[in-house]
Amino acid sequence: MIITALAASLSLASCPAGAHCLEDETLLAVSANPDRAAFILSAMQTAQARYGDVFSRTPGLTAVIEDSTQFPGLALELDGQGYTVKPWVSPQAMRDQLEAQLRPALEAQMAGAPEAVIDAAINSALSDRVDGNERVRHGEAIIAHELGHLWLRDTYDWPDIDTGGARTYGAAAAPDWFDETAAVLMESEQLTGERRSNLCEDLPDDISAQLSRYFTMEHPLLQMAALAADRAAAAARARGEAADGPQIMVMSGDALSSQGADMIGAERFYGLTRALVDYLMTRTGSHVVFDTLAQTLASGQSLEDWLASSPSDLPSSQAALIDDLATFIESGCAA
């Protein structure tokens, strides 16, 4: 694929000051760092190819803008030109914002300690929370994951629904388990391996009951996002700062679960989704299954409707699919 500097092929007059802009046909990556722009565009290209393989559809104009607050107005301008725009937070920006939140507390706890000792403690805390974060460790795969959500929304004719102002994830009209399926399908082999391993390491005793819940539940991250936002706002207020600005909090699954997140946490939700993907591909031997399922769900029908008319190598009801999927997961983990 050809990578070029942003030029007159786009209706933007120029790349914003201080930005590096790379494009490839319908894809645009923007970052203040040239290496990061190249990294993001590569992730977009990989995701686009994979999406076409899985869904046999070509996403439209798409832009990923890293640290978009550095380029005010750009997202709105691109949106007006028909782009689907995904803001992205760079590892450095994540680190800087977390340091701004952590430093006052650590300085208070370590009052009187040499500055070098305080700095070392802060750097250690940041390394643990940023470098170990999935969005940093698997940056390319997570960019592709997020684009899967957006492209599922944009490439199928989903009905408009009134969410009442509630948070939505990807295609609001799609069941959350299938919205996540489109995203997990975009991930790298390395992250895919982690999804499988994590599920098997923490396999619930009654996997069928978990799967029944899985197919009806809201995405756990919607609850987690609300919780993280509340905690970030409370921390900002405690520091005497405005609580309505952007905040970054990196929270572990255990911490979120202890604060009342869904009984199926995000990591298990991803693991069950990966297992569903593996199951459907194993049973049917084809990626085409995901396109036909998306078309059925976007038309307002259900998983039950799709199974009733699905190929003979799949169960004909959701209950039977859950039982077969549970056996598939248990057998895979035992092996």
Structural features, described:
- The protein has 335 residues and is of the alpha/beta class.
- The chain is built from 15 helices and five strands.
- It has helices at residues 34-55, 74-80, 91-109, 115-131, 134-137, 139-155, 176-184, 189-201, 207-214, 220-238, 253-258, 266-284, 288-298, 303-308, 318-334; strands spanning 4-5, 20-24, 27-31, 62-66, 84-88.
- A five-stranded mixed beta sheet has the order 1-2-3-4-5, with helices on both faces.
- A hairpin with a 2-residue loop joins strand 2 and strand 3 (27-31).
- Helix 9 (207-214) crosses helix 15.
- It is globular and about 70 Å long.
- The two termini are 40 Å apart.
- The model is unreliable at 1-9 and 245-262 (pLDDT under 50).
